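Usage

Read records sequentially. Each one opens with the input sequence:
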Amino acid sequence: MISTYQSNLENFYYWAQEKPNEIFLKQPIGDNFIDFTYQEAENHVNKLAAFLQEKVQSEPKHVGIMAKNSAYWILADLAISSGGMPCIAPYISWDFFELETACEGGTYPALMAN
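and closes with the structure output:
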């Protein structure tokens, strides 16, 4: 039992160690589901966090996510946190030009989309 406040990332890593083979996320695909165990999710999160740490070198190290609410969004958010970067969601009303300007202007050195 967790007795003190922990972040979502800390809780995720706690349960990945405690219950690695338990289902963490279910992603619906049509009439089927893709299951992610804690261990599988941790592998995805760690690989993506390492990639972001390698590629996002400039300040600010903001990473944007543009995605539907999905298992992949949660994995991306955890990876961004694990990489020590803030996740900044772009405005949903932005068009391509505004998004491109934000990326090229350095607001988002990295943008994850699904």
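Summary fields computed downstream for this record:
- Residues 8-113 form a domain with the Rossmann fold fold (CATH 3.40.50.980).
- The mean pLDDT is 83.
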